[in-house]
Amino acid sequence: MPLKTTTANTPHPLDTPVQFLKGVGEKRAEVLEAAGISTLEDLLEFRPRRYLDRSEVKQIAQLQMDEEVTVIGEVVAHQIHRGRRKRLSVAIHDGTGILEAVWFNQVEFFSRIFSQGQIVAFSGKVGRFRYWQMVHPDFDIIGEKKEQLNTGQLIPLYPSTQEFKKVGLSHYRFRQIFSRALQKYGDSIPETLPDYLLKKYRLISRAEAYRQMHFPDSLEMVHQVWRRFKYEELFYLQMVMAIRRRFHGTEARGKAVRIDDSALKELIHGFPFTLTGAQQRVLEEIKSDLESGKPMNRLLQGDVGSGKTVIALLTMMCGKFSGYQAALMAPTEILAQQHYFNIRELLGDQPVKMALLIGSLTASEKREIHRQLSTGELDLVIGTHALIQEGVEFKNLGIVVIDEQHRFGVTQRGELIEKGDIPHVLVMTATPIPRTLALTIYGDLDVSVIDELPPGRQTIKTFWRTEERLPKIYEFIREHLRNNEQVYVVYPLIEESEKMDLKAATEAFQFLQKKIFPDYNLALLHGRLKMPEKEAIMDQFKKGEVQLLVATTVIEVGVDVPQATIMMIEHAERFGLSQLHQLRGRVGRGALQSYCILVTPPEINEIARERMQVMESTCDGFVIAEEDLRLRGSGEFFGTRQHGMPDLRYANLVTDQNIISVARKDAFEMINSDPYLRKPEHRMVRTQFIKNYIEKYRLPSIA
Ligand code: ADP
Ligand code: MG
Known about the structure:
About 40% of the residues lie in helices and about 20% in strands. The protein is α/β, with parallel strands linked by helices. Strand 6 (about 125-130) and strand 7 form a beta hairpin. The chain is globular and about 90 Å long. It binds adenosine-5'-diphosphate and magnesium ion.
């Protein structure tokens, strides 16, 4: 039976539209809907942003000058004074004294919010002017005087917007709505995790979790609420991975590749170097994937310069020796071109027909390549997005390699794969992804790592310097230029301030050319240039005709110039750690000692300072990735959306690594023992899956 057929059609209580809940009504429903809350289930998921602990609240009689505190009291008076300066004054009484809160701005707006008899919390700095006073305090309306809903020790404070306030959706009102909804529906909130898993980890039930979320007995219970929902969230995420893997692996037959070891050996023998141990190991892993009869789905991680291109080539050639075509897709034309030329050199006089397919070719050139791909005349094609355009058809695409995966969206990866009939797929990335994160994003892929650089590489010496040191740095650069070495100077360019940034980079370029290095050839490379111009500049730099290249971050990935030994990064504080590491990887590509100089203003914030120190202390991409993740949090690790990274509501990919591991194990075990989730104890998992996951994650329809 296909997993897709739904079980029942009776609407579930959790799907009750908010409008029909007691205390909501049409107007509030509209406002809630606009905030993404349309059903009871959405509403239950509307989490307090924090809890106010009554024991931390101070009594007015105990207040002291200038301290920062929270007080709770009943509004006893509120009034707009129209003197020299209009102000709103709201007085509260807490049984021990009076405190006055004062607003000088948006007086009318605030005055509409308060009314006599409300119970409010004010937080801020205490002053004194006749009464104890707070100016522009943070405030929360937490109840009404005659409130029946005892809030207990902890008062949930919900996210609050002006729109909410306009329709009276105060914390108090929310509590009222929740109280009534839980009374009516609380017992019919279905559990989404099997009993044996709840027992195994001593998790509270889902119904209890929602009750405690909105009416917590203690902070410990709040902690239990989070523990439960974190596990649930990660468990289902791993279920997605488990199902993907299971049904990709068994349903699909991979292209049969017969590994021709002697042909491979001969090819490798022609290389100007021997493979590193790590490259050999990865090659073996790939070979056994290709021979397995199942489609390969492998992620190859390797730091910049670790030699992934060779692996890409060998993988493609395994296909070619078995009569398949192979395609390599790179994110930019510069990279695609570089791959093309490097690979052609590595191939030597091997009889391989290969083409470069990029957007800037003429229409007739493209058409010719399209033709040769569809007839099978071409063995290998290397290109950009041009590979996934309409009109590109392969005779028998067997191997797909995608370089610098993080630049592509998930769908683009899919589009190239769909050009073949379940081809073998190798995805390469130089962004080292911490293991747990890799499991979460690429949980359906096998992972190989090149954890060894080719021999003879020097570590790049990295220095962080402030701008006053520029004259010294220029002197240092000059010495190396004199020695026929080459230099990158990078300026940040971000979209929001692109024009200004470009101007700064242009000015810097002119200044360096005229005033500092008049006797050398400098060039300016930036994203606004047309492709042929960029190529011409890169080409001149590669040939050494240009010795110093001023660039915005367009050189970020992959460009390979062995004579380039200095990477100077201006305003390094504006780059993220991974980006800095990628940039640094542009030097140290040859045998010469290389340097990375990070230049910042003297005053930078604490996090930027830490980034500079990390860069100075290590060249290890994995260490840097972990640090990056720690400093930035997973959300920003790399523009998350395009990675198909899930928006996690409860779990944190950095701090919840333990939960990720156990949830993963549980999910995979469940799918192994009960692939169609037919066992009665898994019924709720099946229901939940059909409801929330199959479509969202585009899971294979499981027949
Ligand atoms: P990346 O992993 O960053 O894509 P590349 O594939 O561009 O790295 O390789 C970086 C450089 O190292 C290239 O010049 C390549 O020819 C060289 N290289 C690759 N493998 C080896 C090896 N085993 N020994 C020596 N040099 C190698
Ligand atoms: Mg590369």
